[in-house]
């Protein structure tokens, strides 16, 4: 019994040692007012919802839904971003955002022409690398949190 407990303790110790350590969040903070933060986060959620709808519609070969969904978050949505918000975004963030919108626009164009679901899924996978890069590099905070302390 003692040997079993020793092995269990040793096994637990090795497991804990091998776990990655949690580090501080070193992402760049993008400071926005509460309204701008809500607008930006809403847009990101729209990207996520659109991605899921495009995946589901592609699997059904429903190119009308793919095109409409992708077009909704494409270039037109990018043009609706207020200049005051754009001015606060870091250069790298501003580079990734348009790539995402253009990526959705490319998906819409593919769905409206050849409608090749394999091409669409590849483009969506590539587009989501921008989302991952952005979320790995940046985090958004509202300026109101500065005064709450």
From TrEMBL:
Entry's Gene Ontology molecular function annotations: electron transfer activity; heme binding; iron ion binding
InterPro entries assigned: Cyt_c/b562
Top-level taxon of origin: Bacteria
Residues in the signal sequence: 1-23
Keywords of this entry: Signal
Gene Ontology biological-process entries: electron transport chain
Protein's name according to its UniProt entry: Cytochrome c
Organism per entry: Hydrogenovibrio thermophilus
